[in-house]
Structure formats: structure tokens, C-alpha cells
């Protein structure tokens, strides 16, 4: 079975006459905004992972579900692939367009349809921004928990497609844990409801299956999310360490002590210095690592937990433990963390952000190995990540204008992901597979497992027209990948030239 | 597509020579315990839903994964269906055997393989009892949260297969929310790992898809669950009401007030009286309804929440609000609730336990409708349920020896489930679909949706040999069901004679 298109789809797809398709769409959907001129298409050539770029054939910007439905039917009939996207902030190239495909931009579906405070749910269109849901729920004392760093811009439909995470996922779970229901259109434009407004749904759990499927199983037209009561108070502790290994062990100790922080984040020296230079958060610039530990809940509870966490941190060898003395300092501590990526970006012309997950107990060892790999490849790596979840985000610094540096960065990134798999982890925590990590899926899964994925894809989309070339590699690709790995003795990481 | 066997499978399956199969199994697996004599098979003729009974052809009791693998391969080659079960405590007939099938009893896989307190996980064999996990984790201050009423007996493999719930699911989620990884064997005996020890897995979420799939997608050989820190304290409030509607509204009010109780349970007058006669829990026997609300966490937090919940209950019209004065009284309050089913069983020769879920806001209206239906059908209904989740368990009292009462009980039960679907709920909360509610699946899902379920089943098990006739109805069955529904003007609920 090999029903998924490869990313080389543009090469093997039958030539679609762009003008014919455009005219058919304009005829059937006279009110639909369609972009087709090169200068209009250019802004849509990539998502948040700018290393991969392809100019789409056409960009459609519908406002009504009926338009999406008609478009899907027309494309299905003409065998034209469709890539849906929301705000396009994804970091794995999951919404990367195709030269011979239509990019379906759902950003105009931006209405909050219902906030039901007694049922604690919000029913929204897919283009609604993540943060807008919490803002709309705030008058009821409620909020939507998953908080990707891009939450001011990213859309909930994209969050569902990538099973997005964030700082608070340690305590409150990923997108999949905070969803009740999604309305979708299948590749043939048929509407379907996955999940329900209640506790459980009978039959197979199609909602969970759909979440994180990266636009390959259907197009989201409505999302119902759970809302949570806003915690009364939140306090943050900052702990400094003279080695990353000690900080890594402290993370495991906090969790083992029976405490579930709202967030538990780690930054290494390179990231600390970069953030401090940029934001002036008050970080100790000589520390080899810092931990930021947020505790949220009711006053007394948070107070007691702060004391316990301080003790654990001290026992784990922290050279300093500070509690943000007021809300302004708390916000400043987090501002440093939340701006760490752009801060590190100031140190280097380019950086490559990885996303892998490991069991927490492996943190000290993996951090040590990353340091060794960094020296071996001659590239600096900054570590800024969701330590409590074991969700690492190594940032590899390089200069694409220096010959060979891009290739070295890719090779180093691949090594780090392989290391994650080797210690029992996985190649993604919250960014998804997308285009970026499709080769590493061959390391994570064997061909039997991939065959299952393909069969599930076929159950929803036998035509293979929805977002081909992402998330699930073809067996053929993995065979090639494996062969390259074995014979050439080099690491065959994504060839950035192709897209 | 119609690849699933119907429950009439025994009628349409090719005749399997029991002796030949037995000899082949004995030859290939000389150490495997196989039961084949009628008197040995009889104890396995039903699960916890005793209304459905079928004597299996053979019962296999393996101890090693290799035995399960060989058995599956042999059965697959000979086209013999296999029904796996754990402790057989399920309430929907999900593990009901087949006359021409092998019942694969996984109860001997009862080893706890690992308790990792720093990673907060337990790796166990599928036959380990639910409560045994919490007992093993207790020395580390941890426990496994989902707590079905049968937790002393039910096995974790069965919990995964049915996505089991319990009193504490309001706060801590269903089985699917507390799982990290399962090891399975496919219908062809191939091992597969679903999920991982870390936060997220790339690709489609096969773990969630598998959870609640009722043994139709594979046989579970190992389960890794999340463990939670045991709450410092737990307090319980008992509130009495002079109407079930008021109690129903109070439930919605508590949730809307931003409080997440550990458990929030409701009993109506019939259940209160039955439980009080049986357990002497100290319940107010004149109340039309009581709520039991447990608050757990750290001392100060629980104290504050108890005060807030008391206020909400009083405002909602509670005639009395009592806090259990000590641990002995708290345990007594819960003993009444946990023994409510057998207590109600003392009032009537037979009872039929339903399991449906509705949005919380619909509780008062649905409780009123159940009362009206009860009068209309001339059968008493006791309500004992997870009110916080909107997970209803109406118990319909009847006497199977009185002509027509069983049929009336079934018809009334069907009406109640249809009512759940009508108000936006679903036909199961935590018991699963199994054999019992397979017809109601036709009311819950349309043929497009069922076709997806069939395609997913086919992706895992194209042979259809794993637990045929449960969970997902054939389109043919639904067509018949619909036709009966329309033409005969009567409710075609499960014909209990067949199994």
C-alpha cells in the first residue's frame, strides 16, 4: 500500500491547467476570493518554518462553509490537491503549499459562535486565534488552557491540526485533551461531526485520531473546546544552576515530589544571556542553566507548593532560588522565556528550532549529549524548553551564507532527534511532523506501523489529495532513506532545495 | 463497505470443527490451558451483563505473549473469531463470547512490571486489577485515577478496551486521559506499540483510537498508565433536595462556579431509600434527591471549596447540607453510593442498568422526562449517577418472570438512550457499546459515519475476526433497525433471545 503522495508529488502529479481550474472556481463560486497572480501568491509560500518554500498554484480565501464544500468537491473531481491552513504560524512546514495545489486559507472563519459558561465550552470557527478564545471567556472567569508561544496569532484550527502544546501543557494537557468536538468536511466535501459536547463518544475515538493529523484527514470548519476556571493566583520561582545536568535532575525531582507545576521551563547559558541582553528580565547571566517554575491555583495551595519546590530545588543543588516578588517581576521572568527564540535569533544569522520529546529521567544525559554533539559539529546550540514535559527545543545556530553550515545544522538536528528516539522519546512534542520531520518518521516507525497510518489515511481520504507529502512518509521514501543511511554512510536529512 | 460480521455471525460463519481446532492448538501450544468441556465453558458464557449469554467454543487461558501470538495466528489462518477479555466485569456485553469462536482470557497476565515514581507511570500486564495498580503505587504517594465501581475486580486491559470511567473521572478524566502506551498484538499476531512514554507521539493518535475500541482492533499485552499524586485530603458534602430537578440544577451551578470536585454524584429517592435500608449510610430518606460532592486537594484549598460549594447548594434550594464530620462518615457516605446498584437490586427481581451521557444543563429536563417515561411504561426507575459528568445510570426495575416486563424494560431503556442523543448527548458514558447498545449506534451515527468506523476496523483487522458483532453495527443491521423503526411503529430493541 502506498497511497500517499510523496513530497515529490508536484513532479508526478498530472499537469493541472491553472487557468481552467481558476475559471471553474470563479464560475461556481463567483463571490470567493481567489489569489492567482505571482505577487499575490508569494506571501503564502511558507508557514512559520521559512526554510521550506513553495508558491501555491492558487490561494482561496473562503468565508462560508458552503464555499469550502464546493471547492473541495471541485478539486476532488479534478484531482487537485488541497492544503488547508489557518494563520500559517506552524513550525514544521505542515501547511507548506504545493505548486500544483490549492492553498485553502481558513483565516476568515474568525467568529466565536458561543461561550457556554455553565457547560464550560466555547464553540468557535477554525480561524479564531488561540488567545481570542481566552479573551472572550475571561468575563466568565474561564480560559482555554493550551498556550503555544504563537498564541496571539495562531488559529485554533491549526492548533487542532498540529495538536499544539505550550508552557501550560504539563498541567493542562495538549490540544487533544482540551477538545470536545470538531466539525469537518471530508475530501469529498461531506460534513462530519467528530466527538460530542459530552464526556465520551461511542465507537472509535475519531476526534483524537483527527487531532494532530495535520490536515490529511479533513478540513476543520468548527471547533468546540473545553474552558477551565482561571487560577486564583500564579507564582513563579527562578532557580539557577552551575550545570545543565543538575537543572535536568531538579526537574525530575520536582515531579517526583508529587507537585504538578503550571509550567516548568529550562534555559541554558546561551539562551539566558541572549534573553537577558534582549529583554533585561533579571536573569543570572553566569548560571549554566535556569529553571522557571510556575505554580498556580488557590493562594494557600500555591504558597505551600512554592515552599516545597524551593526546598527541592535547593536540595538538587540550585545556587540561587528566587520567587518573583510581584506580578511585574513574574511577567518579566516569563517575558524572557517567551522571547527566547527571537533573542537567540539575534546571536546568529539563522537558527534551526528542533522539537523532540524524551522521558524526564533522560534530561541530564541528553543535555550532556547535545553539548558533545554541538562541539563535534562546530555549531552552537541554545536550549530553551518545556522541561517538565521532557519537550526539548534545541536551537541550532548557523549561518546559511557560510558554505556547509546549513547541511551541518540539519545533520546535527537529525542526530538530536535520533537521540530522542533512542532514549524512548519521540521526534515531536508539539510542533508536529509536517514537511520538516517526515524522514525522521522512518526512524520512529517501522513499515508495519506506517502501513497502519496509510490505511487510516485511506479510510478518510483514499484520493490522497488532502495535504499530500506531510506527516506520514511513504514506504518508498523510508526505503530510500534507510538505503541512503546504510550505503552512503551519511545522514540524509531533508533536502531543503526541493521546496 | 460491510466488512464487519454481524452479531448473527454464528449463523453465517463456516462451521469450524471444534475437535480439529482443539487438537491444532494443543499440538502447537502443549502448555496452554484450554477449556473445552461444556461444564468448563459455562462460567464464561457472559460478562457483567448477564442478560446476554453464549457458550464459547473454546476458552484459552494463556500465560505468555508468545502463546497469544501463536493462538492468534492459528485462528487467523483458520478464520476462527477471537474474543479477548480480562476479568469479564464489563456491563455492555463487550466480551460476550461466540459459539463458533475462541474466548481468549487474559486474566493470568497479572504482573505489575514497573512502578516508576519519578516518571509517574506504571507498566503492567493487561490482567492486573485496576485497584492493584493504586495499591502498588501507594508507597510512593501515587495512585491511578480512573476508578470504575468494579475496580476491585476489573482488569486494566478491559478498562482500556472499554475506556472505563468512574466516580473521579469528572476531575481526572477517563481511561484514555490516563494512558501513555499499550503494547498489542494484531489479529495476525504482529506486535505493535501504540503511544510512548512521553508527552506526544507523532503520526496519527493510534493510542486514543485503540482505547475504547472494545477488542476489535487488537489484543492488549501490556499497558503503561499515568500515576497521579494522592490528594492530601478529601472531604465530602451531602446535600438534600425536595426535587430531582433542583438537584440537577445545583450540579450545573457548582460547575459554573468554577469548582472541579473530585466526584459529584446524585441519587434519587428510590435509590436513597434502597441504599439506606442496605448500608445505613445516614442518608435523609425523605429527600427526593441527594448530591454527594467530594472535594480533594490540599487542606486549605479543600476547606475553601467546601464553603463555596455549601453556599452554591443552599442557593440552589438544598433543604440540608452536611459535611461528613470525620473519615468514618465520609467512607459511609460513599459506601451508600457505591453499593447503590446491589441495594436497588434488593427491591426487584431484575434491573436493567443504562449508561447515557447528556450535557449538564439538560439534567433537570431529562430527569423529569425519565420520571414521565417511568410512569408511562409502568416500571420504576432509580437514578444513581455521575451527575458532574452528565453521565446517567438509570436503573430500570422489572421482573423477567412477569410476561412482557423484560420487553417493556428494554423499550423504556431504549427511549431513555434516544432522549440522551436527542438533547445532544450520547448512548454511552463509560460502559461502552458492546453487544447491548449496538442498535442504538444506528441512532447515534449515520451511514457515512459508520462507514468510517468500518474502514478503520478494516485497517487494523480486514478479516473481521476480532470480537465481531460488538461496538460498530453493520450498515445492514442499521437498515433493518431503521426499517423496523419506521414500518412496524414499535421500538426494535435488542432481541435478548439470540445470545
Automatic annotation (TrEMBL), chains A, B:
The keyword RNA-binding does not apply. SUPFAM superfamilies: FAD-binding/transporter-associated domain-like, FAD-linked oxidases, C-terminal domain. Residues 52-230 form the FAD-binding PCMH-type domain. Its cofactor is FAD. Gene3D superfamilies: 3.30.465.10, 3.30.70.2740, Vanillyl-alcohol Oxidase, Chain A, domain 4. Keywords: FAD, Flavoprotein, Oxidoreductase. The keyword Aminoacyl-tRNA synthetase does not apply. InterPro entries: FAD-bd_oxidored_4_C, FAD-bd_PCMH, FAD-bd_PCMH-like_sf, FAD-bd_PCMH_sub2, FAD-linked_Oxase-like_C, FAD-linked_OxidoTrans_Type4, GlcD, Oxid_FAD_bind_N. PANTHER family: GLYCOLATE OXIDASE SUBUNIT GLCD. This is Glycolate oxidase. It comes from Pseudomonas congelans.
